[in-house]
């Protein structure tokens, strides 16, 4: 494990990221900071207008911002049409995630029928099962369990304590955070109602999970293997923590989901969708491209038009809420009294 | 670890599962597939009427279906009153979960005061604590941690990276998926309001968890130990992923919960209930047998009548939603204006 | 590992916890029980009035209760103004969590650049990364992964299979339950809309996580590292299982959250708040001290007044629910028909 000391000159950053510099090209930055917290050796950024007032007092040595925000600011500036995007790219220079020499840690357990590229790293106390392959530049962190018949693409990284159960295929540069479980059995049950004591029979889950290039999968997120065919994430799908993706779900490229979303089985979600935190999506639906679902909404029918969708009620003080909520039970009666038919649309 | 190559003749399947065969008893199947994806060497099934149209084009070699659906279908058919159930049973033949020779992997850490049956398998990097017992045919997968005073019944299987903290007793044939945590402390707090700075005092959690025969517990699901007595799951309880079962909860036999359900402390749930995804059930309630709760509903009172229950509002485009949702705050005023009393029922 | 046999005389308990004893000081108790389940050698308690009726039949040897509840009860009693709090303190005597001799288990993997106090315990198959420190009396249970640059304060305990990814600093006496992940990357994405195929760019997550003294963090709970500065939990914050705390969140001292709560990024929550199960709190908000949010409510705006807040609709049988829920879509039209303006407040 090696760490880099990092230091960059403003002029070099401008050139490297194709940004205009307004100020001293010799300005040196050694890290990043918020406008409120950064010091003279730090790079900061202004993207959200609500923080514009902090420009007056920031001690940041170098700030990435839009040209119009830079008017009247006396410090050194990198001008960017999209400052958050430019900051994301520059900040990667300061990401000191430790690098590891390739190889297999002596405490790791690698099945003789697994194939690990010599340019991959298998960390301490990790476990690789039979029939699995780990490509060059992949990183299997401490305590990960990779089961049978999995493929880890080049440059993919299981941070630590990730589980790939069986038949999970990750593309290239996939990043999986700790506690994530991919390829566990989907929740498939048949009910034996004819038995003396009726009971559930498990439906074998025989499919796998496919994860496209450049996906990111959050901590403690679960993606079940398909019942027969695979559960599929397209490229560049971004999943936050504690998301549940049930069996046979298909998620289109570039779709992002915030924490705690639950997607039920066999639903197909399009490309460039954005699903808000703790939203739920029922099973066997089709959601088209470019759909936005707001936080904690429940999607119970297919969506065929791009746009933003919501359910739920607004937050109130509980006393007011109780007074109003009890009336929800009378809503139909109320509407009838006012003479509205259930078919009328607002 | 050994894998079986599997191949079955239609006539043998008909006999073994007591189904009528319509077609060629010599038809050979080597795997399963969906109607749309199966080839001539695959078994498929038709249960959901919405897929009936796929019969016209399926290449499946053998299809399990109801007699009435088979009319006019020219291929080989296994007739079943409940095709999904029959398929579940047959498909188990194709489940190539690797088998392990019994024994304890050299990298596992087994406390000298634990008792492991010679016919059990303890996988790599697993850990078994003092006072725990593992019965014949049980499987403790890679990276599992079994703490103190646990019992793993015959044929039960912790897939990988499961944690049983303390005093967890699993019956026979229990299946626990990766990341599940059973027997962590319940969330018990007493508030010391008399202190100079009022603060929380932890209430010791001294009970355990009992899990009945044939239960299945999903990935990253958590079941806390009881405060004094045990948290209890009856036989054949089926829990999907990311479910939270708080301390002292009791769940009756054959109840199934979809992903992300949360059940608060000391609630009792009956037999044959079905709880939809991400539903919440408040604490100290009693839910009778055969209750269905729809997805994302919140149960805040005991339920004494079998049936289906819901809360929430329908999904709308966000513009319409905002226009209507703001009116929820006026609902009581509205009802008063129309002359409805809060006691009126629809 | 050693276990204690525990036995206490009522008179000694009264003295030790400064409670009045009504009854036999020689009464011996060896464990705890519920009023319904306790035997003559067990200590029980009565705090919730709904269990008062069980006093008539309890076999408990010794009961902690309020003076007014003790009237007419013939058994041995410890009188307490707050019986639940008194019980919490006494019951800790019966908590037989096994103790470990300090030291590093031979199967643990400790980086040469980590510093472990000789009075700490590192359990089997745990992993401690470079630059991390473990203080005296700390306990790193089986299968835990502590990454780089973490600090574990004196007396803190990672029960088992906990992951601290990077730059996580735990205060003293912090208790973290299995499956919890602290310090994973926050969900920071910038959208490159100018690319030929527009796509997400990861915003490096460079901050850490700070956890104050006496916090408790539930099983499978996730707390992300800050993007630039730290995600912060004040002292005595109590988090139940499966909670998601996003990057840059700040939670004030003594705040408690029930299971499955989700808090989005950069939100600040005050002191002494209580957040109900599965509630959601949107990002970039400020919640003042002493706010209570009821279960499954969604907080979408900042809260500046202490008090209780709710959203959602009541549970109904699904038939009634459907009849009323469909009318929610007409709510604005309904209100207009009745002549209410959207600005009117109830």
From TrEMBL, chains A, B, C:
InterPro entries: LpxD, Trimer_LpxA-like_sf, UDP_GlcNAc_AcTrfase_non-rep. SUPFAM superfamilies: Trimeric LpxA-like enzymes (SSF51161). CDD domains: LbH_LpxD. GO terms for biological process: lipid A biosynthetic process. Pathway: Bacterial outer membrane biogenesis; LPS lipid A biosynthesis. Residues 28-93 form the UDP-3-O-[3-hydroxymyristoyl] glucosamine N-acyltransferase non-repeat region domain. The keyword Iron does not apply. It comes from the Bacteria. It catalyses: a UDP-3-O-[(3R)-3-hydroxyacyl]-alpha-D-glucosamine + a (3R)-hydroxyacyl-[ACP] = a UDP-2-N,3-O-bis[(3R)-3-hydroxyacyl]-alpha-D-glucosamine + holo-[ACP] + H(+). GO terms for cellular component: membrane. The active site is at 247 (proton acceptor). Belongs to the transferase hexapeptide repeat family. LpxD subfamily. Catalyzes the N-acylation of UDP-3-O-acylglucosamine using 3-hydroxyacyl-ACP as the acyl donor. Is involved in the biosynthesis of lipid A, a phosphorylated glycolipid that anchors the lipopolysaccharide to the outer membrane of the cell. This is UDP-3-O-acylglucosamine N-acyltransferase.
